[in-house]
Amino acid sequence: MNIVGRKFTHGEFKTYLDSLNITPWAKFVVVHNTSVPDIALYKTWQARQGKYKNWTPEQWLKNLASYYSGLGLAGGPHLFIPPTEDTILVLNSLLVPGTHSPSWNRFSLGVETVGEFQREGFTDPTQANLIAALAMLHTKFGLKPDGFVLGGSTAATAGKGLHFHKEDTKTSHDTCPGKNIDKAKLVSAVLAKM
Asked: What's the whole-number average pLDDT of the chain?
């Protein structure tokens, strides 16, 4: 697996991206929500009490890598966006495709946002982290979050613009990333940040 498994501040993530020699393989970015953990559970882990006393974001990424590997997958989503101020978590290497959306794995970046946004609000710090990460990814890969064209089934017919997981016709996650993330507002915020 091509696992990075690191926690970054926004500034550190920018420096990390700048250090990568990326061949632009990705055609667009796909936004997801984790559902489990939701924000409440993630904050319980962060409190490091009881059975979670040894929890760290890096250990969670190691656990995720083990989980995806156990499923026989070559990778996982590229980023995880937590509800922790100024934080971006990198799981899968950005140099190669990951595993996150059945139709689009080979030519899209997968960004998991911690939360269950069918019932939880999409607020800061999660919102600020996602906007920052998406702005930096789109800039580094030379992608535009606007001008949406639904993804295709091959790299040659791949879409443009920011995609939501639920837009993949082969996914069973038909609400992902959740009704409380407004795509038009997210795209506008990412463009402003870029």
From this structure: 96
Q: Count other Cβ atoms within 10 Å, centred on residue 144.
A: 15
Q: Are 193 and 131 in contact (CB under 8 A)?
A: yes
The continuous run of DSSP H or E covering 129 comes out as helix 126-141
DSSP 3-state of 42: helix
Structure tokens at 26: 């990705």
Question: What pLDDT, on a 0 to 100 scale, did the predictor assign at position 9?
Answer: 98
User: What's the pLDDT tens digit per position in 151-188?
Assistant: 988 888 899 999 999 999 999 999 999 999 999 999 99
Tell me the C-alpha to C-alpha distance, in Å, between residue 30 and each of 38, 101, 138.
19, 8, 11
* Main-chain phi, psi angles of 4, to 5 degrees: -95, -55
**Angle, vertex CA 135, rays to CA 128 and CA 90, nearest 5:** 75
pLDDT at 152: 87
Question: Residue 29 in contact with residue 162, Cβ under 8 Å?
Answer: yes
* Contact between 84 and 43 (Cβ < 8 Å): no
Residues of the chain short of pLDDT 50, as ranges, are none
Q: What is the C-alpha separation between 71 and 51, in angstroms, rounded?
A: 25
